[in-house]
Amino acid sequence: MDFLIPFTTSGSLVDCVDKKLLVVLRDGRKLHGVLRSYDQFANLVLEDTVERVYHGSAYGQTRHGVFLIRGENVVLLGEVDLDLEDDVPLQQVNLEQLLPFYHQENEERKVREAHKAKVLYDQKGFSKEGGEGDGY
C-alpha cells in the first residue's frame, strides 16, 4: 500500500522537467520559463526565463534567459498549459507603462506586511523575521 502515499519530495518535480512553468517567488516576482534542472533542495534552473509584471488585464515582461532560483524562495510553481496560454485575456504592453503601478503595489504590500508583523509580535508573541528567536 506504500504506492498510495503521495511522493512529496523535490523528486516529484521530475515530471516538470522540460516543461514551461510559472514560478512565484517570496518577493512577489513571477517568472515564466522552461525547467531544465533541479536538486534535492528544490533549487531550480529555468531556461528562456521572462519576468512578468501584471496590472489589471495587462502585463509587461523582461527577458532573463537562464535563471537559477534558490528553492527556499519558491512560493508556488505550476505547469503552464501551452494549449490554453493564448486564450488568457491579457494584453501585453510595454513594461515601462506598468512599473509605476508595480512599485506602488510593492510599497503597499510592504506596509501591510510590516503592520501584520507588528501585530503578531505585539499581540501574539511571534518573533520578527530575521530577529531574535527566528533562528533554527
UniProtKB/TrEMBL annotation:
Q: What does this protein do?
A: Component of the cytoplasmic LSM1-LSM7 complex which is involved in mRNA degradation.
**Listed name of the protein:** U6 snRNA-associated Sm-like protein LSm1
Q: Where is the Sm domain?
A: 8-83
Q: Which family does it belong to?
A: Belongs to the snRNP Sm proteins family.
Annotated gene: LSM1
> Which organism encodes this protein?
Sistotremastrum niveocremeum HHB9708
Q: One GO cellular component from the entry?
A: P-body
Task: Share what the entry says about its subunit structure, partners included.
Answer: Component of the heptameric LSM1-LSM7 complex that forms a seven-membered ring structure with a donut shape.
Q: Does the keyword Phosphoprotein belong to this entry? A: yes
Give the principal location in a single coarse category: cytoplasm
State the Gene Ontology terms under molecular function: mRNA binding
Give the stretches traversing the membrane.
none
For biological process, the GO terms are: deadenylation-dependent decapping of nuclear-transcribed mRNA; mRNA processing; RNA splicing
Under CDD domains, the record lists: LSm1
| Alphabetized UniProt keyword annotations | Cytoplasm, mRNA processing, mRNA splicing, Phosphoprotein, Ribonucleoprotein, RNA-binding
